[in-house]
Amino acid sequence: VVTGYGRTEGDATRVAGAGDWRGVEERVSRTRLAGFIATIVVAAGFTISGIAGAVQGAVAPLIGEVPYDADVAARTWVGPLASAIAWAIVWWAWLRSLRREQAAAEPLRALHQVRLESHGMAAVALAFGGAGLGWILGMLIDIVLGGVRMTAPDRLPWPFELAQFVPMAALGLGIWAWQWSRVLGRRRRDPDGEANSTIRRASLYLTLAVMLVVALGSAALILYRLVGTVIGASLEGNAVSALSTPLGALVMVAIGLAYHGLLLRADMALRPVEAAPPPTPALSPVVLAGASVGEPAGPRRALELVGPEGADLDAALTAARAALPEGVRLEEPGP
């Protein structure tokens, strides 16, 4: 792979390992760190997806009907498995390289890298795990409320879908639990530091935002179906089956929103509150000689009349008053 600087990836790795200024500059590069985190997160997502697809291709024919012929059954799991292995190698190699740099980095930068790594992998794993578990909840809702998802002829066979979403939920939630346990461990060891971490705060806000979008989309689908049923619109399919998947997704994101919202609230309680600036003391009005209390005050400037020893300041003040334009006057403060 050729980098933007005309070097191969191997050359860039050797430069980063050098002890001179080039290696130091490469190791502290934010672009390099972003590349590491992006590659690790993407590789983790494709690994989960590939393993789920391989399990589906291998298990689905054993538990029920599948939407393809038996002569292509092997290809349905060999391809995803090969893809999962390749992406798992990429995931492991880049994660190992990042952790090797963490060991040599200064403590604060190493902590930032650990936070980015754990929060990034936890986020992508939660996305897959939540999708799988939401589908399973939707299937359970359909069964309990008397839907037809398991028997409808126009849908994929339910064992085929079950063989995909169960491993997806198990893998996703398992990897999320692994990475989130690291996040919670840091939170227990250093509550104030983690509560004030920009990386943690951004991760929580991003997770809440994505879940809120999913919740709004699911609620819109549910509302559309309910309103259509109330007004007697002609809607295809069974209402329970049509609502079961968005209901399952809505339940999942509601749990996620509550959990991450409580975490964010607990962090905000530990953040230092900025002290409000002291109030400006109100100045009592000063009435100058020659001015009445009710007279509107115009712009004013306080001056001090200074002269040499023996000078007649009263005469100087009288001369100054005589030279003033109309409407402008000199006043002396009262005692």
Q: Concise description?
A:
With about 325 residues, this protein is mostly helical.
How would you describe this protein?
By secondary structure, the protein is mainly α. Helix content is 69%, strand content 0%. The protein is elongated. The N and C termini lie far apart (86 Å). The relative contact order is 0.08.
* Rg calc: 35 Å
Count all strands and give the number.
Answer: 0
Q: Would you tell me the structural class of the helices and strands?
A: mainly alpha
Order of helices and strands: HHHHHHHHHH
The dominant shape is: elongated
Strand content: under 5%
Mean pLDDT: 79
How many strands, which pairing sense, and closed or not: the largest β-sheet? none
Separation, N- and C-terminal Cα atoms: 86 Å
Uncertain runs are: 1-9, 18-22, 283-294
Please give the share of residues in helix: 55-70%
The number of helical runs is 10
Secondary structure: elements and pairs:
Blueprint: H1 9-17, H2 21-27, H3 30-63, H4 75-104, H5 107-144, H6 158-189, H7 191-195, H8 198-230, H9 239-270, H10 313-322
List key phrases describing it:
mainly alpha; 335 residues
